[in-house]
Amino acid sequence: MANLIEIWPGELQAKLRRMTVQMCHGLLNILLPSNLMKAMQSLETLGVQDCQSVEVAFGIEGLTVREGHQDILFPSLIDVSLGNLPKLTHDWKDNLSGIQGFENLTSLNIKGCGSLRYVFPSSISKLLVKLQVIEVTECRVMELIIGEEPKVDDEVATNILMFPQLKTLKLRDLPNLWSFCLQAYTFERSLLKPAEVINCPNMKALPSTFKHMQEPQTSNVQKANFLTSTQHHLLDGKFYEILIS
Questions:
Q1: Residue 126 has pLDDT above 60, yes or no
Q2: pLDDT single digits (tens) 1-11
Q3: Please, are residues 235 and 209 in contact by the beta-carbon 8 Å criterion?
Q4: 3-class secondary structure for 147-215?
């Protein structure tokens, strides 16, 4: 739909469960602005493909946190897939602390988003307690998986547990990716078993517990020799194999 610029102008009250948007090149830059989010309590899957103008998937900017009242954003959302969005610069555009939501998201797949520099703002990544699958491929300017946000108290940051249910991590064809995250988060008790890091030539800083990986069991899986950082802790020694090429 080449001339479509907006899907739902004004207020929306719907029990929408699945949403797929494809080849709508005239869409406004924010796919889901904040005025729609509170009404999409039943959305379970979101797929957005081949839309030339989308710059932001979830436009959290503009939301307000009222004293004594907390809105939960997308409490039913399970799966998000974003592909071939050349102008996408933010999955979540967030300038607000204290928001809640996305707690049931289990799978995130991002492919061919050539303007995306990081996947998660740190404030959002802390909410994703049920995330099991992260797949990021063919994003040529991506530098980090978890983006850096304004400085907070270091002691508080190191106690934050990230992605406690992560099972699958696939990073492929990311020529500018150089680190998973910058802040000193804790990634422990993960169920992650093999991960794939393929064609990421600048990946030089991964959390320190990668050195605890078990020896590979097959000839085509190599033990990674990455530079480590004493500020990072990943997966509490439960990272078993990493496939590199």
A1: yes
A2: 888 888 876 66
A3: yes
A4: ECCCCCCHHHHHCCECCCCCCEEEEECCCCCCECCCCCCEECCCCCCEEEEECCCCCCEEEHHHHHCCC
